[in-house]
Amino acid sequence: MSDPQLIGFRPNTVGAALRDGYSYYVTEFNIGYSILSFPSGRSLNNSEPKSIFTLPYPFHGTDNTVYNRTAYYNYDMDVISFNMRTEYTKVLRLNISKPLYNNSSSSRMDIQADEHGLWVMYRRNGEKYLTVSRIQPISLKVLSTWPLQAILPEYLCNAFIRCGLLYTVTCGVKHVTVSADYDFYEQMYVSSIPNEWSGKELSLITNLREKMGLQ
Predict the structure, then answer these.
(1) Would you tell me the Gene Ontology cellular component terms (predicted)?
(2) What value does the mean pLDDT of the chain take?
(3) Helix, strand or coil for residue 159?
(4) What is the spatial distance between Cα 134 and Cα 53, in angstroms, rounded to a whole number?
(5) I need a labelling partner for 172 at 20 to 30 A (CA). Which of 84, 140, 184, 197 fits?
(6) For residue range 155-181, what is the model confidence (pLDDT) as tens digits?
(7) What's this model's pTM, rounded to 2 decimal places?
(8) Separation of alpha carbons 68 and 121, rounded Å
(9) What is the model's pLDDT at position 1?
(10) CA 77, CA 95: separation in Å to the nearest integer?
(11) Domains of the chain by residue range
(12) What's the rounded Cα separation, in Å, for the pair 146 and 40?
């Protein structure tokens, strides 16, 4: 795993930059109705959005995603999908508690996408451990769910899933530590040599589909 690279600066310290192909989609603050669309990293750095999308429901938190020009985001107890081409919207309700991580984010769930589709990480009401669901991106049907009782989000500041592996992130005063913890396809916990990166906070922007030649 390589060291993180700085993509660009934004004037607001709270928000999210979501990458889909070569485009970036930015949400400002941790609640709102708008997504700014930037066709490239250069336009993002120059703060020159190509378009602004108004969402049918407000987004909550900063751990949302865009996948094939569809925004998947958290609103209250729901996962919302909003197709930015057609404005078609679907809603999936989950039994979640808040907040998810031990950080300054107000995210109730962490929604991500990789080459296997859509993933949602959350805590169920009354439970302290992490639950992960894999969701069909078009229908929002829940395909599989994993209750991971050995992983407690209250001790994490972030997490992400790539290539069917769950990576957890813990934050120290001057560094963050990233380690692989669970293999969803082998259905087993894994141990790995942790990666330590300097910095107090970690924002993960990846584009696995581009690396794999997918559109």
Answers:
(1) extracellular space
(2) 86
(3) strand
(4) 26
(5) 184
(6) 998 999 988 999 999 888 778 899 999
(7) 0.86
(8) 20
(9) 57
(10) 7
(11) 15-212
(12) 35
